[in-house]
């Protein structure tokens, strides 16, 4: 009886190995830490100037110029603007909430899309240029200046 049990265990182990073997390169890649060059960028999160009086009246804590935070950030190459935002926001102890795929940033800190009017929400620019790609599709290049802006109206 012990020999047949041992044979069953060996057969199950061999079957498991044969099933995993074709997928091993992808499994190993998924388990490996991210490898690659690091790129540095700056992530700034601020509010639209026209929205400052309303946001301050609502008790939103902002610097004098409307900035929530601005921080240098280092990410691995091919990281997305969203990954850079999350890295910078974590350093600033500021939560980021996203929704859907492609990703839409619904909240940074206490500022949520729709909380200050139907048109309120987050938009971003890279090096001063409006980007029409989703933040989880646009990759970060070394030296990028990423600005996330909370808007209450599209002017």
What attributes characterize this protein structure?
single chain; alpha+beta; 4 helices; 8 strands; elongated
What topology emerges from the helices and strands here?
Layout lengths: L1 H19 L3 H8 L6 E10 L4 H6 L9 E10 L4 H11 L4 E4 L4 E5 L2 E2 L8 E6 L2 E2 L14 E7 L4
Shape, principal axes of CA atoms: elongated
Summarize model confidence as the mean pLDDT: 87
User: What is the helix fraction of residues, given as a range?
Assistant: 25-40%
Sheet with most strands: 5 strands, mixed
Number of helices: 4
Note the gap between the termini: 80 Å
**How many beta-strand runs?**
8
Radius of gyration: 23 Å
Query: Which stretches of 5+ consecutive residues score pLDDT under 50?
Result: none
For the biggest β-sheet, the strand order reads: 2-1-8-6-7
What is the beta-strand fraction?
25-35%
What is the ordering of alpha helices and beta strands?
Answer: HHEHEHEEEEEE
Class by alpha and beta content: alpha+beta
């Amino acid at each position: 009886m012990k020999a047949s049990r041992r044979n069953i265990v060996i057969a199950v182990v061999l079957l498991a190995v044969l099933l995993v073997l074709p997928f091993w390169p992808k499994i190993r890649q998924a388990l490996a830490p991210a490898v690659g060059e690091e790129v540095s960028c700056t992530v700034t999160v601020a509010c639209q100037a026209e929205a400052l009086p309303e946001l301050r009246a609502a008790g939103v804590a902002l610097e004098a110029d409307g900035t929530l935070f601005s921080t240098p950030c280092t990410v691995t190459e091919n990281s997305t603007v969203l990954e850079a935002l999350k890295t910078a926001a974590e350093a600033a102890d500021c939560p980021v909430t996203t929704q859907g795929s492609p990703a839409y940033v619904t909240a940074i800190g206490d500022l949520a899309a729709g909380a200050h009017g139907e048109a309120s929400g987050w938009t971003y620019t890279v090096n001063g240029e409006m980007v029409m790609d989703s933040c989880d599709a646009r990759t970060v290049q070394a030296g990028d200046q990423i600005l996330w802006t909370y808007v209450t109206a599209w002017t």
